[in-house]
Amino acid sequence: MSAPHTPRPPRKHTALPKARILIEALPWLTRHHGRTVVIKFGGNAMVDDALKAAFAQDVVFLRHAGLHPVVVHGGGPQISAQLDRLGLDSEFRAGLRVTTPEAMDVVRMVLAGQVQRELVGLLNRHGPLAVGMTGEDAHLMSAVKRYADVDGERVDLGRVGEVTATDTGAIEALLRDGRIPVVSSVARGADDDHVYNVNADTAAAALAAALRAETLMVLTDVEGLYADWPASDEVISRLTESELEKLLPDLASGMVPKMEGCLHAVRNGVRTARVIDGRVPHAILLEIFTDEGIGTMVVPDGAGEGEPT
Ligand SMILES: Nc1ncnc2c1ncn2[C@@H]1O[C@H](COP(=O)(O)OP(=O)(O)O)[C@@H](O)[C@H]1O
Ligand SMILES: CC(=O)N[C@@H](CCC(=O)OP(=O)(O)O)C(=O)O
């Protein structure tokens, strides 16, 4: 007779901590499944190849986790570099680039022909996912000429546009087909044949609102909204639309279109708008799938403090 068989204790699997990490993401996976997330990738967060590759991995991860990511990209530094190479002036007024018709050709070429192509290429390393477009395609974004207000004076910015209408049909069709739209912030003229240069934060906010996105996520090159910039680097982690409205007049330069965009988004049906640090590798995954939200989150008035995000 052979000795009774004593069952062995289960093997210690070294990969168990990985399972724990995956399970920790379950509440967020459940919450965000099937939701649209508009991600704005700024030109300043786009300078490092490793960060760009990590950004693409995060966006593809979201897509495979059942979310519907839409990428809107900027490219301010890349446009400035090309204008410089061509010996064309590049001046900003109230945070917006004064855009002559010649400069507009360069803006369109750099955004749609260079920056967008690069992002589409990085995303498509992971499969046939990304499709690039500009606001001109299928009337995605229509704009009229926008003026700036500098010390109470109306300033002509040339071909700078303000989005007046959106048609998200093409984006929705792409999302239904499992694709990742990558949008350059160039718009068609609503009542002329020009094309317009739209600030990419503004374009992302307009699209997030039009798509009734769950979240607008703006990646940039700072940790978030600093309470007293540049004197202090204390980041405001959460604020309501009313609190943000009070702060807006005191904000400077690049933060203005971002925070105006966040306000527009949450006032128009987007549940949360966030400004996060694109210099942190995998910032998007950290923000969406963990409790340790990084950066600044704007919520509509009346959103409960302890509500899941
Ligand atoms: N209150 C503030 N908090 C954080 N950054 C601010 C603030 N006010 C102005 N900024 C500036 O805004 C910049 C981000 O805007 P921008 O340069 O347009 O970035 P992007 O290319 O990502 O759109 C920061 O690098 C910082 O210099
Ligand atoms: C009108 C206006 O200023 N348009 C921007 C469009 C690109 C952009 O917004 O890029 P970032 O997100 O990298 O700043 C520009 O010409 O620079």
UniProtKB/TrEMBL annotation:
Positions contributing to substrate binding: G75, G76, R97, N197
Presence of the UniProt keyword Metal-binding in the record: no
CDD domains: AAK_NAGK-C
Site entry (Transition state stabilizer), positions: K40, K258
Major site of localization recorded for this protein: cytoplasm
One Gene Ontology biological process: L-arginine biosynthetic process via ornithine
Subcellular location, record wording: Cytoplasm
Domain Aspartate/glutamate/uridylate kinase: residue ranges: 36-277
Superkingdom classification of source: Bacteria
UniProt key word Transferase: yes
Pathway as given in its UniProt record: Amino-acid biosynthesis; L-arginine biosynthesis; N(2)-acetyl-L-ornithine from L-glutamate: step 2/4
GO molecular function ontology, one term from the record: acetylglutamate kinase activity
EC number(s) per entry: 2.7.2.8
Keyword annotations: Amino-acid biosynthesis, Arginine biosynthesis, ATP-binding, Cytoplasm, Kinase, Nucleotide-binding, Transferase
GO cellular component: cytoplasm
Matches recorded under PANTHER family: N-ACETYLGLUTAMATE SYNTHASE (PTHR23342), N-ACETYLGLUTAMATE SYNTHASE, MITOCHONDRIAL (PTHR23342:SF0)
Family: Belongs to the acetylglutamate kinase family. ArgB subfamily.
Function: Catalyzes the ATP-dependent phosphorylation of N-acetyl-L-glutamate.
NCBIfam families xref list: argB
Name of the protein this chain belongs to: Acetylglutamate kinase
Organism: Streptomyces radicis
Lineage, broadest ranks: Bacteria, Bacillati, Actinomycetota, Actinomycetes, Kitasatosporales
Gene name of the record: argB
